[in-house]
Amino acid sequence: MDDLINKLFKFDYSLNEFFDITYKIRNKMNYLSLMSELHPKNRIKYLKLLLKYDKKLNEYMINPIYFDFIIKNYDGSEVMKKLKKEILLNGYGKDYIKLREISNKLTEFESKFQKNINEDIKYYGKIKLTKGNYSKLMESIQDENERKKIYKLFTDIAYPENDILLKKIIKLRKEYAEILGFKSFNEMLFKYGEKLVKSEKQLNTFLNKIDKKYKNQYFEIIDKIGGGDPWNIDYNMIKYFKENGLDINDIKKYFSLKNLERVVLNFYEKMFNIKFVKKSGKFWDPNVEYFDVYYNGKLLGGFYLDKFPRTGKYNHFAVFPLKNYYKGELPICCLVMNYNEQNVSIYEIQTFLHEMGHVVHHLFSRADNYLMSGTNCTIDFVEAPSQLMEKFIDESFLKKISENKLTDKEYKLIIQYNYYKNIINKYRQLNYSKFDIQLGKHILPINLNKLWNDILTKAYKIKMDSHGYCSFGHIAGGYESSYYSYLYSDLMADKIFQKFDSKKYRNIILINEEGNIMKSYNKYIKEIKN
Q1: Predicted pLDDT of residue 330
Q2: DSSP class of residue 510?
Q3: Looking at residue 53, what is its pLDDT?
Q4: Which helix (DSSP H) or strand (DSSP E) does residue 516 occupy?
Q5: What's the CA gap between 369 and 373, in Å, rounded?
Q6: Neighbours of 311 (CB within 10 A)
Q7: Averaged over 164-175, what is the pLDDT?
Q8: CA 265, CA 42: separation in Å to the nearest integer?
Q9: Is 47 helix (H, G, I), strand (E, B) or coil?
């Protein structure tokens, strides 16, 4: 790694050689990033290496010689447009030394923010409050006061440490934006970020539209199930469906993780004409698996599957890129899950489908430059391929996983339950997006607790009092001022799903040879209409 970085700082290469060097560096950084989240024993070691090299790379990215190199080689191609935006964002023509200091500090604070979330373990009695355990408790405990106590514990994760850190992060973002000549962090990202939304005004129009779409649906559901205090929603939902003939907790025994994995992989194999082949090997944990993926008999790429939680491990579900396609080098990624047991919930079924959507997006992409391949696309679209896959959950899909052991009425109720949960989740995403975008406005000094609870109180029409923003990892994990993109990309996923053609979707959107995802998306929509 040191040799590659030293080579980079020599500035005696062609544009083609530059991409070759940075591709190798990116792959090694991806590996360090993954291990800093997953390695059972040496996460801290990998995190220190990641921060060390990230600091060096920041020094390179905010360097006038590098800026001149990009300007000199600018040819109007998609990848060079992207790099030109990056050097403008990194301070081309500005005080790059000060910007480098701020950038290094931001990296340090944002890594610490995520670390605090992963390592602040809360317990209810002897039960560890992982996301899965929290949901089970909130669905099953009859005493409302006990549910309220658990809710308070769970929403206090990383508080007050991350409240303090987030204020520092906001201040540094403001300083950075002002050096570049912008009034706010939001304004800077709308100008130079990889976004389809180009202004705060455009975003507010979009959020108001989404608010109208989901608000009434949310409150209709809450009225049906009998109330919407945050510690009561899950319990009331379970109770409502039980009274109508569906015991959500009881039916879970019919949905095994083994069957889920088999059915989901088979679903993707048939849809995209691919084949998953498990390979043996020693990985960072004994439970980790690796799959080669073949398309039409030819190796497409591969992915790791890390399914179960362990102490200190990244505690959500996500896909981490390790290698993007580039000059014949095949892509590899890692699908991180956190299943607590051998049976799965409806949410976990949907999540597996969702994350595998990211996997096939990463593996199929054949853009001619790694910087434009796979999930290296505009953030407003990046979730669309995964959200699209969620929409294929229907009664027949559930019957395959449960081996048709439930009644038709129960399958219909499961679909209804899943619909209710999705509406509640989208309304949550909407209101979290409102909080996220406020952080980029830099109303300093800022009372984060008041801002968070004021937004949620207004949205849910209940007096809210939580520190949930301290465990809202997206705001310091790559989705800052961009959390709305989950909702934005879902609208595009809806359009793709309405007239879905798997071959056209694979060949136009996933493969995306030109590296312009929106051009590919528009081409797909046009061809489907025709």
Answers
A1: 97
A2: I
A3: 93
A4: none
A5: 7
A6: 9
A7: 96
A8: 31
A9: helix
| 196 band by pLDDT with thresholds 50, 70 and 90 | confident
- pLDDT of 217: 96
Q: Which amino acid is at 382?
A: V
- Could you check whether the bond before residue 331 is cis, i.e. omega within 30 degrees of 0? no
In this predicted structure, the answer to whether residue 280 has a pLDDT above a threshold of 90 is: yes
Q: How large a percentage of the chain has pLDDT more than 70? A: 100
Q: How far apart are CA 16 and CA 21, in angstroms?
A: 9
C-alpha closest to that of 379 among 306, 305, 524, 477: 477
Is 40 within 8 Å of 285 (Cβ atoms)?
Answer: yes
pLDDT tens across 443-466, in order? 778 899 999 999 999 999 999 999
For 152-167, what is the mean pLDDT? 97
Q: Is the peptide bond before 160 cis (omega within 30 degrees of 0)?
A: yes
The DSSP 8-state label assigned to residue 126 in this structure reads T
Helices assigned H by DSSP within 159-293: 161-179, 185-192, 200-225, 233-243, 248-251, 257-272
Looking at the DSSP bridge assignments, the partners of residue 334 are 304, 320
Backbone dihedral angles phi then psi of residue 306, each to the nearest 5 degrees: -115, 100
d(CA 199, CA 313): 37
**245-406+499-529 adopts what CATH topology?**
Collagenase (Catalytic Domain) (3.40.390)
Looking at the DSSP bridge assignments, the partners of residue 438 are: none
Return the bridge partners of 124, or none: 127
Quick check: 103 and 91 in contact, CB under 8 A? no
Numbered ranges of CATH 3.40.390.10 in the chain: 245-406+499-529
Distance CA 172, CA 399 (A): 52
Is 142's pLDDT higher than 90?
A: yes
234 alpha carbon, distance to own chain's centre: 23
> Which of 82, 230, 219 has the alpha carbon at shortest distance from 150?
230
pLDDT over 90 (residue 529): no
| pLDDT band at 275; cut points 50, 70, 90 | very high
At 105 the three-state DSSP class reads helix
